[in-house]
Amino acid sequence: MDLIVAEDRSDLVKARGEGRVALVPTMGALHEGHRALIRAARGRAAQVVVSIFVNPLQFGPNEDYSRYPRTSDADLEACREEGVSVVFAPSVETMYHPDRQVGVSSGVMGTLVEGASRPGHFDGVLTVVLKLFHLVGPDLAVFGQKDAQQLALIRRMVADLDLPIEILGVPTVREPDGLALSSRNRYLSAGDRGVALSLSRALRAGAGQSTPAAVRAAARAVLDEAPPALAVDYLVLVDPATFTEVPDSYAGEAVLAVAAKVGTTRLIDNVVVTL
Predict the structure, then answer these.
(1) Kind and range of the H or E run holding 262
(2) Which residues, other chains included, contact 123 with Cβ-Cβ below 8 Å and sequence gap of 6+?
(3) What is the pLDDT, as a whole number, of residue 147?
(4) What biological function has been recorded for the protein in this entry (predicted)?
(5) pLDDT tens digits along 192-218
(6) Does position 60 have pLDDT exceeding 80, yes or no?
(7) 58 annotated binding-site participant
(8) What residues pair up with 142 in beta bridges, in sequence order?
(9) Pairing relationship of beta strands 86-88 and 47-52 according to DSSP bridges
(10) Has residue 29 got a pLDDT over 90?
């Protein structure tokens, strides 16, 4: 079946097939990590819809919305290669009315960790995701564990609003040297890329420990030895359901998360640790 490109709700209605539908929301600039999401979706649904939309609501005023990579031809080809049924590629005008007033609040969790560094970011994420859920009507939606706080908030939104959608998280895909795949990696120079490896090294060091204090200390030690070009925003060890910092007495799964700027490029990464 040929790939269908839908631009609005009426296109989506015409394109809808029989059986279970999986949605893979993206902002385009697809890479191997996105392909892993698509493959996970294909294994669980008869029809896979990939949305490609650079969402202005989740970018702050001094962030990279205008220069975020837009590679539509390459993205469509990747979707064809992966057997995607429908690409939903709406315009900003289709997604948001000019006088839009109502959105989704991400609550307390949306103000923590990444939300503290990017105020309003998760409100924008949840608003666009909820709109995509309404427009596409999926049975299943697939997201990457790399954006762990986003994934946790989407799970919370689905639970709190009683949405009849299964949420699947897919493990982070990494380069052979450990760098987590990201559309923003293309901003990195060769030198920047070497510096960026400090993030995954710190996470590996922390993940090798067995207590919260030791996890934090091991990861921080790696970051403290990183080149000056690495500007750390945060390093946290948090409860995966709430994204609040875990106490030193904590036992169970936790997320060790880091964010930093390398040059002008801001990167995030995380790993799940068992304590």
Answers:
(1) strand 253-262
(2) 57, 103, 104, 105, 106, 110
(3) 98
(4) Catalyzes the condensation of pantoate with beta-alanine in an ATP-dependent reaction via a pantoyl-adenylate intermediate.
(5) 999 999 999 999 999 999 999 999 999
(6) yes
(7) yes
(8) 168
(9) parallel
(10) yes
Query: Is 97 annotated in the active site?
Result: no
Q: Is the pLDDT of residue 1 over 80?
A: no
How far apart, in Å, are the Cα atoms of 113 and each of 18, 91, 109, 147, 238?
41, 30, 8, 12, 9
- What ranges in 43-110 are assigned the alpha helix state H? 72-81, 92-95
Question: What type of residue sits at position 259?
Answer: A
Asked whether residue 33 is marked as a ligand-binding residue, the answer is: yes
Residue 182 assigned as binding residue: yes
Q: 273: how many CB neighbours lie within 10 A of its CB?
A: 21
Please name which of 81, 85, 66, 92 lies closest in space to residue 31, comparing C-alpha atoms.
81
- Give the tens place of pLDDT for each residue, 116-168: 999 999 999 999 999 999 999 999 999 999 999 999 999 999 999 999 999 99
β-strand partners of 183: none
The reply to whether 181 sits in an annotated binding site is: yes
* C-alpha to C-alpha distance for 119 and 111, rounded to whole angstroms: 7
Angle at 27 (CA atoms; ends 202, 21), nearest 5 degrees: 105
CA distances from 144 to 6, 11, 15, 71, 101 (A): 23, 27, 25, 20, 29
